[in-house]
Amino acid sequence: MLPRGRPRALGAALLLLLLLVVGFFLFGRDPEYGLGTTATLDGDPYGSRNRSTSSLQLLLPPKCEVMLHVAIVCAGYNSSREIITLMKSVLFYRKNPLHLHLITDAVARNILETLFRTWMVPAVVVSFYDAEELKPLVSWIPNKHYSGLYGLMKLVLPSVLPLSLARVIVLDTDVTFSSDIMELWALFGHFSDKQVVGLVENQSDWYLGNLWKNHRPWPALGRGFNTGVILLWLDRLQQIGWEQMWKLTAKRELLTLTATSLADQDIFNAVIKEHPELVHPLPCVWNVQLSDHTLAERCYLEAADLKVIHWNSPKKLRVKNKHAEFFRDLHLTFLGFDGKLLCRELFGCPNQFPPGVEQLQQALAQLDEEEPCFEFRQQQLTVHRVHITFLSHQPPPPRPHDVTLVAQLSMDRLQMLEALCRHWRGPMSLALYLTDAEAQQFLRFVETSPVLSARKDVAYHVVYRDGPLYPVNQLRNVALAQALTPYVFLSDIDFLPAYSLYDYLRASIEQLALGRRQRKAALVVPAFETLHYRFSFPNSKAELLTLLDAGSLHTFRYHEWPQGHASTDYTRWREAQAPYRVQWSADYEPYVVVPRDCPRYDPRFVGFGWNKVAHIIELDAQEYEFLVLPEAFSIHLPHAPSLDISRFRSSPTYRDCLQALKEEFHQDLSRRYGSAALKYLTALQQSRSRA
Amino acid sequence: MLPRGRPRALGAALLLLLLLVVGFFLFGRDPEYGLGTTATLDGDPYGSRNRSTSSLQLLLPPKCEVMLHVAIVCAGYNSSREIITLMKSVLFYRKNPLHLHLITDAVARNILETLFRTWMVPAVVVSFYDAEELKPLVSWIPNKHYSGLYGLMKLVLPSVLPLSLARVIVLDTDVTFSSDIMELWALFGHFSDKQVVGLVENQSDWYLGNLWKNHRPWPALGRGFNTGVILLWLDRLQQIGWEQMWKLTAKRELLTLTATSLADQDIFNAVIKEHPELVHPLPCVWNVQLSDHTLAERCYLEAADLKVIHWNSPKKLRVKNKHAEFFRDLHLTFLGFDGKLLCRELFGCPNQFPPGVEQLQQALAQLDEEEPCFEFRQQQLTVHRVHITFLSHQPPPPRPHDVTLVAQLSMDRLQMLEALCRHWRGPMSLALYLTDAEAQQFLRFVETSPVLSARKDVAYHVVYRDGPLYPVNQLRNVALAQALTPYVFLSDIDFLPAYSLYDYLRASIEQLALGRRQRKAALVVPAFETLHYRFSFPNSKAELLTLLDAGSLHTFRYHEWPQGHASTDYTRWREAQAPYRVQWSADYEPYVVVPRDCPRYDPRFVGFGWNKVAHIIELDAQEYEFLVLPEAFSIHLPHAPSLDISRFRSSPTYRDCLQALKEEFHQDLSRRYGSAALKYLTALQQSRSRA
């Protein structure tokens, strides 16, 4: 699945091409970079290579050569976060190419496709398999385990993964590596000819039975085995008729046992009890199990080294046992680990970058570090890792006039979120620019806030920090692309909308029959500001006008940048009873409500300045009508300047680079809209001659 | 060196004891926890153990048994930061106890003693050796290398380290480990009987000569060896008369060569050229050298694994070579790594905690997680890792009336620093509560700010984040303990002092002859606030009064907490021409100037509330006179509430816990001051009955 769109763009100007490439990584929705479906894997060049490799070679793999295959079942928002921490731990220690086989529900696929596409880890191929399709294969098994149907899916992997795949490591999402996964893969070399499944003994007394009255576990060999880490010898499993084998066993046991308690693990153990020759016991360090009643200590106290930790209690990191602190620290290491640092190449191996990455690298390498706008160019070319819907989210039900508030923020504006939730009772799509560690702080912040944790209609998209300039328009585009309602309110995080705005906007959209009009409209929400830090928010337009007259409120940036909102015509707005149309004028940057398929923001504007202005020009060029809403308003709250803005406010170079960006933007505009774009250029030239 | 002060405290109440323990770690200045001088090491239980260990044992060390010795020369602020990153990389991979032998100047010793005492890494012993004492041993050697005299000190280690020490690994501060240091130690086992020094070949053509016209390097065997990583077999070196040997060689070479170019490395190479039998060549991966003209690629492209990276260009991380990005990522991993995660015990080894840590852990374990104030108790018992003078600093010259501004902040107040520097032109001691990654951001922030990087009289002390509550008083105490002038101005970061305040305070101290008075005084700096975000700062008391009358300024917290500053008596201040004395009253919390040996802040107050009130009570109890200065003022700027405060503002539990803390504080007060403390308790009871 090589990307097909690329060659067409090659003729265009360099910057334009690169912006396209960046855009492709950020917003492309087509499967690519190995993100195919099962079908696309048949021709996989690595899957078959291992099949004929002898055991000896597996023990001593030639550098760079052996591609390891890892299969993981992953569903929902929480597991999608877990799997990333697991993958960070694997990537930190690995020295071989990896092929991930992810069995996902729609939520996890959406998240992880975007994540891996934008992460761009060299020598990692990712394939997705639809868990929905597998449900019928296991849904007949009654199961009491918290992993639900998804846990059982590990049983059907031999028939789901491509035939060309001879061996695979199967992992639960709640394991953490503290060693090179190649060492685990090499244990296939220790299998006898008959052995098909590698497992670590279960480190609790569960399968011995009698833990409580009427405790009747599934049959197992001794203490049984844990299936958090499995080595599956796929082609041998097919040869011995695995599918029939486990189904027969399960059906027979289910005659007397009402359901599985531990999902797939019960069935694996029942099969192994009957066919002990099939199992290859793995050293206990490869699956150190940290449940409440773990007996893992017997294993790890003697071991020189731990390899894989398994948080197999439903309490996960909150589990209590004697060494929990030690294990938690190992896990926390990767929880906040900067994923970008894992994008290093495999050492001394030929490049194995996903498609497009080398073009990006070449473009970056061609930049002149001495050029004054180098940081701008570099930032524009940076593809940020994106984790969409970082927290649990309930998509809004389809409603024809619904509006999503779209905004972006970094850590220093987190305290705005609760107030925003109180002011806007509709769906929101927010992009957060964070480090990996800050993303964890953010998670805890939401969990401990009753206001925020109650709101499931707010989607948070984490864009990971990289580079010195705030990629404001890339962030806006991420949030915009993830809005799920027909309309979006393009706002900024330091504005609080009128309490009535959400209802009023939906009513206005309906009244104006926007959906049915041929002409495109941008509804303007007039912007105000207070310079007072303590401030009582007006409950109506009448109250707002009183505050305005008293001087406690101003129209937004009236003193510094009146042209930004001049066209809104605040004088007319005071008296207006109905929406009125206004014309674009230079530097206009109102906050608007538009259909969600509106033009994207121009990602070349990084840092501060002109980022909204360019978007409004784009709307005007595409003949959107600007309609000011008479009852709508939004108020900017004061805050200290962000670190990002402080850094550049006083820099003349910064202003020069911004001017260069503006000019390039206008060149592109002329190219796309021809003479219709002349008025914008004239306006720019006038403003320059005034300056 | 076990701490001797502990048993005396055992009889006191539990909380008091624990506060003492915490205080001991934070502020103790006595050498302890292995932080002795050379002399104290003679009885070191580990140094001699290895001496009789056979080579075979070294190759297969028994778990937990082998103590590895590492010697590092470290001088100045920058190297003190570097060595921490190096140590993080070592600690991340190590599985054995370590004994660090640090040869330091006064600056590095001060920083690193505090750091290791508060880091409390299990199974790490640290000994310090005074580099000043070693200077005469090497200062006769002319040297052109940027490491200066300190680089040469590696030559004299065999005579400086304790006789009981048989072997040691010597590291430069600019190396990064990506492997277990035990593997390096085990290479001693490969030495022949004659070999005394293990070194990696130099990965450049330097010693081949002819790099440019008249390039005449010191003699070396072929390409020579690099001394960034050295295995020194100390007792054998002594047996062969190393000291005479290298001195003779150096003196002879210096007859024709004017100076060393690469410090100790030139001399090591010259000795080896004469006595090639002394060197044991180490595999190249143990010192991958990343200079500008590195030939390291020959080594690392074939290697399966890199072990140690050496940033041996003066450009350090900014060095340019083909794989610099790859190596930088390995280094950056540890640069921002949370040091706390390295405090894990050695796995399955007996506890090897520094003294006092187990008491702390027991106290923590005794806390009841279900108790409502659990988080407070836990936070009070948390010992934070402290990195004093994180950036280069020039201590102020001794002046009898000089004043240091003392304050604390976290990342969200960084943008206050430039304004503060413009308002206060004297020395400052600031404690910053940061994560390891934020500390790196902070470093870049200062480097890119012309205002901040020009100021060498501002000392920044990083206190590493740990726990949910802001340890405000612990931070204040760190900043206070590091103030070096006779007087301190105890301020808060969101206040800007009058432009004249620094000069005025020094003049007032001199005029009031504070140093010569028997009675102790606290000079009160009246506090004001503006609620306006954009604000023009008054240049004089007259201008301030005009703003006050116009309502653009208020006395601080006039509306919410008038009792906090009521005693200052703003009405009297308006007219005052001379300092006037005021009496303590309940909840008084002025900003004061006091001698730097004033009482410390009570660290039990974590989070927000009453933290300054308690300190002012303490001053009053110790009979400090409060003198309000007629021309002094300081103005609070508005800001969004910090995340820390937002979290608790609305929590009733929080207020209950604060009340409990107040009561405990008063109990201690009565214990210490007897009936003199009665008035504070009465005031508290009155305020409670009013509530």
TrEMBL record, chains A, B:
Membrane disposition: Single-pass type II membrane protein
Record has DNA damage as a keyword: no
Keyword terms of this UniProt record: Glycoprotein, Glycosyltransferase, Golgi apparatus, Manganese, Membrane, Metal-binding, Multifunctional enzyme, Signal-anchor, Transferase, Transmembrane, Transmembrane helix
GO BP terms, alphabetized: protein O-linked glycosylation via mannose
Reaction(s) catalysed by this chain's protein: 3-O-[beta-D-GlcA-(1->3)-beta-D-Xyl-(1->4)-Rib-ol-P-Rib-ol-P-3-beta-D-GalNAc-(1->3)-beta-D-GlcNAc-(1->4)-(O-6-P-alpha-D-Man)]-Thr-[protein] + UDP-alpha-D-xylose = 3-O-[alpha-D-Xyl-(1->3)-beta-D-GlcA-(1->4)-beta-D-Xyl-(1->4)-Rib-ol-P-Rib-ol-P-3-beta-D-GalNAc-(1->3)-beta-D-GlcNAc-(1->4)-(O-6-P-alpha-D-Man)]-Thr-[protein] + UDP + H(+); 3-O-{(1->[3)-alpha-D-Xyl-(1->3)-beta-D-GlcA-(1->](n)-4)-beta-D-Xyl-(1->4)-Rib-ol-P-Rib-ol-P-3-beta-D-GalNAc-(1->3)-beta-D-GlcNAc-(1->4)-O-6-P-alpha-D-Man}-L-Thr-[protein] + UDP-alpha-D-glucuronate = 3-O-{beta-D-GlcA-(1->[3)-alpha-D-Xyl-(1->3)-beta-D-GlcA-(1->](n)-4)-beta-D-Xyl-(1->4)-Rib-ol-P-Rib-ol-P-3-beta-D-GalNAc-(1->3)-beta-D-GlcNAc-(1->4)-O-6-P-alpha-D-Man}-L-Thr-[protein] + UDP + H(+); 3-O-{beta-D-GlcA-(1->[3)-alpha-D-Xyl-(1->3)-beta-D-GlcA-(1->](n)-4)-beta-D-Xyl-(1->4)-Rib-ol-P-Rib-ol-P-3-beta-D-GalNAc-(1->3)-beta-D-GlcNAc-(1->4)-O-6-P-alpha-D-Man}-L-Thr-[protein] + UDP-alpha-D-xylose = 3-O-{(1->[3)-alpha-D-Xyl-(1->3)-beta-D-GlcA-(1->](n+1)-4)-beta-D-Xyl-(1->4)-Rib-ol-P-Rib-ol-P-3-beta-D-GalNAc-(1->3)-beta-D-GlcNAc-(1->4)-O-6-P-alpha-D-Man}-L-Thr-[protein] + UDP + H(+)
Pathway: Protein modification; protein glycosylation
GO CC annotations on file: Golgi membrane
InterPro entries: Glyco_trans_8, Nucleotide-diphossugar_trans, Xyl/GlcA_transferase
Main location: Golgi
GO molecular function, one term: glucuronosyltransferase activity
Cellular location(s): Golgi apparatus membrane
Cofactor requirements of the protein: Mn(2+)
Homology family: In the C-terminal section; belongs to the glycosyltransferase 49 family.
Function statement: Bifunctional glycosyltransferase with both alpha-1,3-xylosyltransferase and beta-1,3-glucuronyltransferase activities involved in the maturation of alpha-dystroglycan (DAG1) by glycosylation leading to DAG1 binding to laminin G-like domain-containing extracellular proteins with high affinity and in a phosphorylated-O-mannosyl trisaccharide dependent manner. Elongates the glucuronyl-beta-1,4-xylose-beta disaccharide primer structure by adding repeating units [-3-Xylose-alpha-1,3-GlcA-beta-1-] to produce a heteropolysaccharide. Supports the maturation of DAG1 more effectively than LARGE1.
Name the UniProt record assigns to this protein: LARGE xylosyl- and glucuronyltransferase 2
Organism: Rattus norvegicus
Source organism phylogeny: Eukaryota, Metazoa, Chordata, Craniata, Vertebrata
Gene: Large2
